[in-house]
Structures are given as structure tokens and as C-alpha cells.
């Protein structure tokens, strides 16, 4: 059986996420392991061209990671029939137009989220991609984090009994640049450049909740801009116009209440940058990015409220850590492999541009809820 080689146009990988997760830990890792083996036994190999606006940055990135081709001319790359997949991890405001070009050129689409800056834009991308008959996928990386895979195992095996609530806590302190250099790009804090916590993270919480706890039906959200001035990459002060925190409650069609706090203005005192606690009538679990601890009914302590004495219970003692019974690969890489097998041999794949629509819908409805100060319902769109 002969190997299959797929060409990928990678647009926008000079950014932090594009470089670390998509180029180094996904594409480069797949190439170094010899490709991806499909169900039919054939091996899918990949060749990439790095596309962007800064030729110097592209060349340095290509030289460091063994990529043969770079280009600052996207149109020229789209005309090349060798490249059958277009990948986009640019800033959100640039994404939709270039995806449209790629669809018009007959390329299969794989992209970061949000897929567009508006709900109408996300719906349009989905519709034209389906009409063109190209295959498409949207990054849903957190579904393959070891911690969330362990949660999924607990759900599937009935550990929780009836789940009633979920509490998610995400975020960390992002320095403003005044005392210490900011560790996130400045566009994240400018609404006009596609920034904002709600637009960024509610897209994530949509697919996490939909896939684990039921479809989101209603949202109540409050967004805030806690820090109004930061220092950009060039040392210049700028006004923060986007929200840097979002406090949201989601109600699902399974009767589960999910609360997720997301903030770039909080200092971490929890097990990880993201923790998700799931509570059911038979047990509870708290998952981080990689680890997961559980507490079943028979191991649950019986506290009594008494603020006049030090609490005699160490509440950490009665939790058990789930073992790593298998090797967990990089979450981004896992989804890349699934999409490559989908494109090459039509293997099953469930996370298309429709999920991009759902993600931006929740962000839009969250912002609407914040403006109105009330719960907002989500209608079915795709």
C-alpha cells in the first residue's frame, strides 16, 4: 500500500499558539513520527508551507523546525493544487476573508476559533463551505486534554450518578506591561482587533459543555474590563477596549447548571490554570488540564459549620487521584490526526464549521446577556 501525501497551507503560525501547538507539537510531531496511519493501513504524510506577512519571521521558523517552504503570497499558494488543506490561526479579524478565498479555491478548511468576528460571518462560512463540498474542521482542543478525557470516562461509566452542576475556573494574572512584560499579545485586549475574553473563551466552553454535559440552552453572563491600560509589544501604552473577564452561567438540556469564570486578572490558587468540578449525587470530580481527582459517596466527609474553631477536616485528604492508565498525546495533535484521516479517507469527524457557529453564538449571546442583565436563550442555528 502506497503512502498518501497531503499538502497544508499554514497561515498565521508565527503567533504563540500557532507556533507551539499547531506547528511544533502537531505538524512537526506528525512528520517526525512518520505520518498518520489510517484505518485501512495506509500512512498519511504531510508537507507544509508557512504563510504570513513577515518573511523574516517565517524563514526563521521554517529553518528551526525543518519546514522547506514559506510564502508571503497566500493567493499564489491557494492556486497550487498540491496543497489541499488550508489552516488558519491568524488573529480573528483576518480569518473569515482568507477562509472564503480558500473555499473558493477548493481547499479543505481547518481553523482556529472563533471562526469569525460575528455570528452572521460564522454562519456564512459554514454555508459556503457546505455548498462548495469541502471538508472542514474547527479546533476543539480541550476535548482531548487528559483531564477532560478522564472526566468523560467517569461520565460514561456512571461514576457521578445524576450530574447536577459543573463549576469551571479558568485564568491567571496577565501582567500589564507596566512592571513586568505582558505574556499575551496586545490585540487580545482591543475589541476592534477581535480581542475579548467572552469571544475567546465562551467558544471553548460551548464545545466542552455540549460534548460532556448537554447542549447549552440558556446563558447568563457578566463581562468586565478590569484593567483599562496596558503596554504593547513595542513599549507603547494603549487603552484596553475589550473585556478581560467573563463570569457566566449556562443551563443545558440535561438540566445541568454550569458556571464558568474566565479571567486574565486573577492570581491562581487552585490545582491548575483550568479546573472543572463536576458534582453528582453519587460522586464528584475535579479535573485540571492533565490530572483528575475523585470523591465518591463513601469517601465524602461530613463537615459541620462552626466558625469558632479551626476546621478539623483536611478536605484534600479524602480525594483520590485517577491513574494514568494510558499515554495521553497532545490534544491539538490528536485532532489534527483525526482531520487528516477525514480528508484523506473520509474517516468519521464531528467538529466542523457548525461548531464554529455554535461557539460564536454563545459568545454573542453572552455579551447580549451582559448588556441586558438577564438570561438569554440560544436558538438552534445549524
CATH architecture of the largest domain: 2-Layer Sandwich
Q: What order do the helices and strands follow?
A: EHEEHEHEHEHEHEHEEEEEEEEEHHE
CATH first level of the largest domain = Alpha Beta
Number of helices: 9
Low-confidence stretches: none
CATH superfamily of the largest domain: Dihydrodipicolinate Reductase, domain 2
Secondary structure category: alpha/beta
How much helical structure, as a percent, in the residues?
A: 25-40%
Gap between N and C termini: 39 Å
The tally of strands reads 18
Can you walk through the features of this model?
α5 packs antiparallel against α9 (353-372) and α7 (197-212) packs across α9. This protein starts with a strand and ends in a 5-residue tail after the last strand. It folds into two domains: 4-140 and 331-349, NAD(P)-binding Rossmann-like Domain (Rossmann fold); 142-329 and 361-376, Dihydrodipicolinate Reductase, domain 2, CATH 3.30.360.10. The protein is α/β, with parallel strands linked by helices and 382 residues long. A hairpin with a 5-residue loop joins β10 and β11 (237-239). A nine-stranded mixed β-sheet has the order 17-16-15-14-8-13-12-9-18. Strands 1, 2, 3, 4, 5, 6 and 7 form a seven-stranded mixed β-sheet that branches. It is built from nine helices and 18 strands.
